[in-house]
Amino acid sequence: MAAIITEKFRLHNASQFEESFTESANDVYYFFIGKSTPFTSGTSGGSDSSPPTPIDGPTDEFFAWDDMIAAKSITSSSVQRVIARRNWANGSTFDMYDPTYSASNTTTSGASNLYDSTFYFVTTDYRVYKVLDNNAGVAYSGSEPTSTTTAPFSSGGYVLQYMYTLTSGQINNFLTADFMPVTTDSTVSAAATDGAIDALRVTAGSGYTDGTYYAAIYGDGTSQGTSSGGIVRITVTSGSIVAFGLTAGTNTTIHAAGAGYTFGTINLASGYTFSDSALTTADAIGGSGGAVNVVISPKGGHGFNAIEELGGHYVMMATTLTAAEGDDVSTENDFRKLGIVVNPYSYGTTSVATESTARMTYALKLTSQSGTYDGDEKISQATTGAIGKVVEWDSANSILYYTQERFGDYGTNGTTGAYVAFSGANVVTGATSSATGTPDAAADSAVTLAGGNTLTFTDGYANPELDPDSGDMIYLENRKPISRSSDQIEDIKIIVEF
């Protein structure tokens, strides 16, 4: 069966995803980091220098919950539609807009579809332009365009359409080396004409009579085929039809763009070309081998909907981790895993979480403590058989933050594979530091942390703030270790392509 998933389907899905952050019954998204311990071939697979590729299934989702360190909510202001970044540079050759590209009709750059091509670019001043004509594939030659006119204009030998300018907020939050925000400029949109003909593809031919001619654009446009519809002004020089441009008398131009065209044709035969724009005086052009073909504009016209026109089927979610984020995100260890989970529950409930940040480690309030626990070292309770790995040791408050991964000597018994939770007033010992401490079974109150937040213990224990294994994990990524510190900000951007 010959079938495709269309670009409109991709755009629809991207739009629905973006809207899910703001609709009345909105979804709640959390970005998370995890895995303070190294990747190893005997446990998680891979290594820190070559992290394993996550497997799409429940197993790796469970793993991600086991070693999760912290989570932060993604707000609607942190979500932006984006497109692949194409930078302007003098001397570069760009593709031109043409909706008919295919495997048998490729772009100048060799792309087989419009949205893989380079038919738009952003300047150093963060203005975005669409290329309506690329001068038959010649390199751009001239100064950087700056015009914000709503009409097509010439620059560097190209015909361009101004689309929009990035705001400072978009530049700071969503612009990367590979992607850039896309938005629709209301002024440009209002000036666009649905079905207007703004560009032509010209085949020069030979043997034509030099001069200026006018021809109606036939097809399905408003008043098509008449002087009230679309009209082209054809220039013939040295027996050949001159290429499309915007300079009358020098180029073959659009005399009247018309409206309402979804297809169009131009007939160069005798009786269809004229000496006047009113199309009253027939004037045969002669010659052979030439053609003037229209390039159909997108629905609404060029600039009417920049997101759709430029292929905005990407959604970027941008977030930052600033220091400890109010004590919820450890700055004393690294992380190797990040992801997104939708609609997780608050711990011990079936209510979707509302916290802006969430600590995801377990915690112990110790008393009778001796020594200093090391990050990533194995900790154990000989009495219960519980095993875990240290994420952070808060010596000022005698709080030990830890995870229990489902690997032997990481969170389970190395012999039996059994998982046992830490419990009771049983001594917790560090395997390499030899540090010891007893959970404070009398600790049933809130402890004020360094950043001013409080952490409430029950019999010396505190659970993660989100309920493990709740919600839907929609994104998971393993990375080389990323170190954190108290004066550091991580700027994290996740791009989803639909």
Termini separation: 23 Å
Rg over alpha carbons: 32 Å
| Unreliable stretches covering 5 or more consecutive residues | none
CATH architecture of the largest domain: Sandwich
Secondary structure tally, helices:
5
Fourth-tier CATH superfamily name of the largest domain: baseplate structural protein gp8, domain 1
Q: Which CATH class of the largest domain is shown?
A: Mainly Beta
Shape: elongated
What is the subunit arrangement here?
A: single chain
Per DSSP E runs of 2 or more residues, the count of β-strands stands at 32
Strand portion, in percent?
25-35%
Class of secondary structure makeup = mainly beta
State the strand order across the main sheet.
22-25-24-23-26-27
In this structure, how is the largest beta sheet organized? Answer: 6 strands, antiparallel, barrel
Mean pLDDT: 96
- CATH fold group of the largest domain: baseplate structural protein gp8, domain 1
Helicity range of the residues? under 10%
Number of domains: 3
Description:
- The protein is mainly beta and about 500 residues long.
- It has three domains: about 1-85 and about 320-360 and about 470-490, baseplate structural protein gp8, domain 1 (Sandwich), CATH 2.60.340; about 195-295, no CATH class; about 360-465, no CATH class.
- The protein is built from five helices and 32 strands.
- The chain has helices at about 5-20, 60-65, 170-175, 185-190, 305-310, and strands at about 30-35, 70-75, 80-85, 120, 125-135, 155, 160-165, 180, 195-205, 205-210, 210-215, 220, 230-235, 240, 255, 265, 285-290, 290-295, 315-320, 335-340, 355-360, 360-370, 380, 385-395, 400-405, 430, 435-440, 445-450, 455, 460, 470-480, 490-495.
- Strands 22-25-24-23-26-27 form a six-stranded antiparallel beta barrel.
- A hairpin with a 2-residue loop joins strand 13 (about 230-235) and strand 14 (about 240).
- The protein is elongated and about 105 Å long.
- The protein starts with 6 loop residues before the first helix and ends with a strand.
- The model has no long low-confidence stretch (mean pLDDT about 95).
